[in-house]
Amino acid sequence: MMDAAAAEAKTEMTRLRLRLRGAVQGVGFRPFAFGLAARYGLGGFVRNDAQGVMLEIEGEETAHYVAALRRELPPLARLDAMEIEPVAPRGDRLFVIEATRAGSARTRIPADAATCEKCLDDVFDPSSRFHLYPFVNCTHCGPRYTLTRRLPYDRAQTSMAGFPLCADCARDYADPANRRFHAEPIACSHCGPRLSHQPTEIVAALRAGQIVALKGIGGFHLLCDASNAGSVARLRARKNREAKPFAIMVANEASVALFVNPCADELDLLRSPAHPIVLIESRRNLPGAVAPDMARLGVMLAYAPVHHLLFHAAGGARGAALDFALVATSANPGGAPLIKDNAEAREKLARIADLIVTHDRDIVVRADDSVMQFVDGAPSFLRRARGFVPEPIDLGADGPSVLACGGHLKATLTVTRGREAFVSQHVGDLSDAETFRFYGESAAHLLRLLDVKPEAAACDLHPDYLSTRFAEQSGAPVLRFQHHGAHVAAVGAEHGAKGALFGAALDGHGLGEDGGNWGGEALRLDGRGGFARLGHVAPLALFGGDRAAREPLRMGIAAFAALGRLDEAASYFAGKPEAAQLAKIFAARPAPATTSLGRLFDAASALLGFAERQDFEGQAAMRLEALVRAPRALEGGYNLRDGNVDFAPLLAHFIDARPDAGEGAELLHGTLIEGLGAWIAASAKPGEKIALGGGCLMNRILAEGLAGFLRDKGFTPLLAQKIPPNDGGLSLGQAALARAVLTVG
């Protein structure tokens, strides 16, 4: 028999206080904590506060509770830190959810998540009170960041504050056994937001060839029937988007294979909680105008209840393949930011859309769809926004708070707090006045949510970038960093690299420390915010400045000049009447040089027959990438000298041999992989890590080939995975460099 002392010890109550930080608000954490307490017969409480979640547990099974909490987190939760402190028992036998306490915010809000399967069950269950309701959600899914005004995350702090709960929703919200227990955006058809048009009416318009503007989670989409060539052409004409690829939305996973040929990894990425757009090999059975001259097609699954209802109205059975796809593109006419407000939509989309579908839940924060691809066996961003923002990037150690302002194109901002970097959603081209206002709104929103006062504002060296001027007007001390050093630093930051770091920035344009146009650089960061330039791609003349990036013919003429054959340019481009005049101007007025790999792509594209004006950045290079079946290097196609790499022999081969576009594209990619790889390997120290950044790394063939080449030579290549390799990741690199300066200084 157990003696009295042992019996007393066994039944002795213990009480623990747990402080939890991470993605622990808005993800069903409090009902999860409540359910665990019921399982183990514990008393205590749980509550949200500005730091995250605070809970206390009391009873005999506290150790089992802590272990289960670590092991069984809700689907959208992420636990970054848990502090455990023994406290005096109070004799609690019941566990309760207490009211939120405000204060200085140290927690964060999770990203928006696609509708979960259980909520879809409710949508299509005739016996459910959520039957066919287009705003259903629970603690495991639905909008979060895009409807949150401030922290802590409670209904009163969101755009759902104006929708009082009906009796049924209030009962679900208060029921610990319900999936919607403390689900802040909970609503139903009796008490929640309403859609302005019925799904059947919307689908009828789409089937009739009309263009529909549909308000969604982070803004409005412009939709049309992807199989209707006339509708796609009208959308392009009305949106003034001549050739940039559109993405499509399909009903479900079973429908994907009707339009593209996905691998298992791409399917996994499609059905992840973010439901991003994923670039996948096209089956080419849609009109060519959907993605002109592209081998891959951007595809996303329906992710909001209203999307599922549209496909249901189009005749799709739950889970069955449906041969009906929608072009789904951001509603941002004229390069302006994504439209999110009803009145603005009616004003600015009336000339584009035949039908404008709104709802009465405000979108607090705009967020475009994220765009991703698989590169070198891992998912990689082309655009990071809905579904991922504002999830932070762990910098590995605490540091000063910084506001990093990014670049001018594909702009983002980054705010650091402690060991975390919060990169904003894609903002866009700051040349547009409305986009610049959106940029300022995004900065203010991030700083308010994170409750941060930055110690410094980091920006680019370029004095004319509006992001630079924003930093100068921020009121914080300004730290300026070279564009390509920030690209390398961004890749290093997401991979947790410490101290000195070698890298290559393969990019379109950036102001160099010498005032020149850089873009193909081998750099060694010193770990203190500075760097050394070890070498570069051999320069070409930047004939026409910014116009050279829009008109590849100019870079084609620059290639002739670099080879000392300018007098041959007019006859080579005989089909381009302007070539002779441009060559004459070039001869009389030499242009400044650029080491940009992006402009080398443009020169090659012109020599291979793609000399017309580019409708969007990188169009010619993307067309060449789409032609490659197997890259192969031209023997002697490059030279290494004085720490630099020169591809003049490859350009001369294009002029003399005149290969067709497909052969030329394969020679271009293969020679670049071999030449850049040899150059980088010669510049690096044996076996070291090599960060590869810059917009040219969005070219999957180049990125994978270069990473493989370096790996075979014994190096460890680092590619961007958590942020885009282009200027969308620039702000993260600036933030990392600024923290290094402030820490050392």
Q: What does the average pLDDT come to?
A: 94
Number of strands: 28
- Ends: how far apart? 68 Å
Per CATH, the architecture of the domain at 199-372 is Alpha-Beta Complex
Radius of gyration: 28 Å
Report the principal-axis shape: globular
- SS class: alpha/beta
What is the highest CATH level, the class of the domain at 199-372? Alpha Beta
CATH superfamily of the domain at 199-372: DHBP synthase
**Number of contiguous helices:** 24
Helix fraction by DSSP (H/I, runs of at least 4): 25-40%
Show unreliable segments.
1-11
Main sheet?
Answer: 9 strands, mixed
Q: How much of the polypeptide forms β-strand, as a percent range?
A: 15-25%
Give the neighbour order of strands across the main sheet. Answer: 12-6-7-11-8-10-9-13-14
CATH fold annotation of the domain at 199-372: DHBP synthase
Helices and strands in order:
Blueprint: H1 4-11, E1 14-23, H2 29-40, E2 43-49, E3 52-59, H3 62-71, E4 78-87, E5 95-97, H4 117-123, H5 167-174, H6 199-207, E6 212-215, E7 220-225, H7 229-239, E8 247-250, H8 253-256, H9 264-270, E9 277-281, E10 296-301, H10 305-313, E11 326-330, H11 342-348, E12 355-357, E13 371-375, E14 378-383, E15 393-399, E16 402-404, E17 414-423, H12 433-450, E18 456-460, H13 466-472, E19 478-481, H14 483-494, E20 501-511, E21 517-525, E22 531-536, E23 540-541, H15 547-550, H16 552-562, H17 569-572, H18 578-588, E24 593-594, H19 597-607, H20 619-627, E25 639-641, E26 644-646, H21 648-657, H22 661-683, E27 689-693, H23 700-712, E28 716-719, H24 730-744
Parallel strand pairs: 2-5, 6-12, 8-10, 9-13, 16-18, 18-19, 20-27, 27-28
Antiparallel strand pairs: 1-3, 1-4, 2-3, 6-7, 7-11, 8-11, 9-10, 13-14, 15-17, 16-17, 20-21, 21-22, 23-24, 25-26
Helix pairs in contact: 2-3, 6-10, 14-24, 16-18, 16-19, 22-23
